[in-house]
């Protein structure tokens, strides 16, 4: 697919708070998206586990228990969809509303990322790979389907946090035409933040695509999942001629809420003609018999 045109994207370094009720949460989302829109953003990306901020509304026993808080959260799924549908429509922008841990009816939760279009419609992508924390919870399950979305002038795909560290699913999304990889993330250690950032840089390099990573920030001691948060939001490009040498287009610093930049997809496509390397084109060259399986060899005397 040939991608043309530009898209101004804002990625959030989202300060986790403790809303008293859903109205307070909704007001915060409106203020944050207004800030992004005032900077000209046509797409805004919020972080993984965004919906868990709603846990602050619950009583102390419920919000301190992951299983209980996930069960209580389900009553707010419909209002969540209605809220972000309205916000996207009123601001005429694409909104990636982080993730919502959704019970599909069996007491098992999918970590689902919704993308809302300017007309209020939505699509979704489930997280495919579970972290150690998610596995230990015992009630979160992985998704089983990869998707690619039409987003303004370009096709985009969502890779939720840990998913960005795996090359093959993202490669499949890019082979289906994605030129923008959206990564809503939530990490509680510097090591975790580094892993996701390295994954984002690698996926941009391999696929010659832009990557938009959002993060959570601050502390939420009342939440077993959002307790500590670290990292910087960023917009990332392949490292090649005419593009940032370190891959970093822009990233947040300090208390900055948004990193915002205009992504030029026509220029991204044109960069192939002068590429120093072409990992995206050369991907298939990995598939030859001698690398199907490595063998152990021993040194021999001269």
Automatic annotation (TrEMBL):
InterPro entries: C-N_Hydrolase (IPR003010), C-N_Hydrolase_sf (IPR036526)
Domain CN hydrolase per the UniProt entry, residue ranges: 7-265
UniProt keyword terms in alphabetical order: Hydrolase
Keyword DNA-binding: no
Highest taxon in the source lineage: Bacteria
Molecular function terms from GO: hydrolase activity
Keyword Hydrolase belongs to the record: yes
Database matches in PANTHER family: HYDROLASE YHCX, NITRILASE-RELATED
Protein name (database record): Carbon-nitrogen hydrolase family protein
